[in-house]
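User: Quick sanity check before I run a bigger batch. Here is a single chain. Can you write out its predicted 3D structure?
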Amino acid sequence: MEVKSLPRLELIQVAEAVSREKSIDKEEVITAMEEAIEKAARSKYGLERDIRANIDRKNGSINIAQFTEVVEIVENESTQMTYNESQRRNLNVGIGEFYKQSLPPIDFGRIAAQTAKQVISQKVREAERQRQFQEYKDRVGEIVVGTIKRVDNQSVTIDLGRAEAIIKKDQMIPREQLRPGDRLRCFIIEVSEQAKGPQIFMSRASNDFLAALFTQEVPEIYDGIIEIKGVAREPGSRAKISAFSNDPSIDPVGACVGMRGSRVQAVVSELQGEKIEIIPWTEDPVTFVINALAPAVPSKVVMDEDANRMEVVIPDDQLSLAIGRRGQNVRLASQLTGWFVDILTEAEESEKRQEEFSERSKIFIEALDIDDVIAHLMVSEGFISISDIAEASIEELMSIEGFDEDISSELSERAKNFVKMENERIENALKELKVKDDLYDFSELSKASILTLAENNIKTLDELAELDSSELFSILGDKVFLNEGDAGSVIMKARQHWFAEDNVDD
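Assistant: Done. Predicted structure follows.
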């Protein structure tokens, strides 16, 4: 192919055709053509030469020129000349300026033509990828419909028409049968620029996908009358969502279910039969947890706000309903409400309370040197630890039946002395074990917990940060953490100084 033999307007027509087909700017296509011509020209006249091509945007004519910079001292003979040389040649070009020398049209040989084609194709692909990124980067959180292009063990490729997207294995609904050619609704969770171009990642397993499906099916959610407060989901099996109505006259559960269940059934069908329960949201955490545990009906709920934990007592005949298959019901209820829910039968609750009562009474008897009657009274009044007694006022202690001022003062003094001695013991032990200041000052753990770590040869903040959640939980136990997740949160806080140091280095 010879550039000089092409009709001048043909290049412009080709650029326009590619622009329409790929949905990219015509200027980007013409720029790619210019780069291809420049590469072919350098192959003919010298790879190191500064050769530039220009295609006239109106008539398609091609101008090729070599640019040579005028300098005082030549460092590159291919692209530079001295001022004296320019004077000798009467070029009328000053230092720092460029001498432009027009070159004749070039003939593209087979190799040069192939090279030019590759350059154009590459530039067009880059422009197309950038267009895709710009189009989809602001669509995270949207549901889109595409056609399944490829299915393998680790991912599914979706053709969106003007782009391709990927659903990774962990974002698929388990056991869902997907075949090439099927139409599929998915949720965009991430659009990122990577070395091989923009990547669009989608999901059918995310909680947000379920919420977005309800937004499509329920006009009241779309209009903001009803809010989805939370979603807990085990994809393909069961899900719970909490809904709240800003209009007291509208039932959020009924609106989400729809006439004869039409709205919720549409979502269930999309999710391959996933069972969905809609829970009315309320500010009262106890009521919310009770609602979330339906169909079981608790007989008693004990809330521990400090530990973000609820003990829910269930009649024996409803235990299986409350727990659910393989613990699914209570697990989803816990995720939905944000509370750790511990299910107990009435018999288990009674036994647990008796054990706690006996254990706390024993601690009070040994630490304060009191008889079991006084200890039992203290526990019955809700005192959990020696610190609780030390921090209580004399008036609070005197409010206990049978306690006068003398008894209350004596108990308070003994409790304060015990706490003082215990703190001194812990402090001395920490010094003896040579605990470093960074761990000693770590506010997320008590000094008693830090001592336990030191006794397990963890004496610096870095050593704590290097643990995983299961290791920390096994050392400190359930008296400090609700679960391994809580232990993991402490570890992440212990690692914060690593990230701070990285930022300083940057």
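The two ends are 52 Å apart (CA to CA).

User: Great, the batch can go ahead then.
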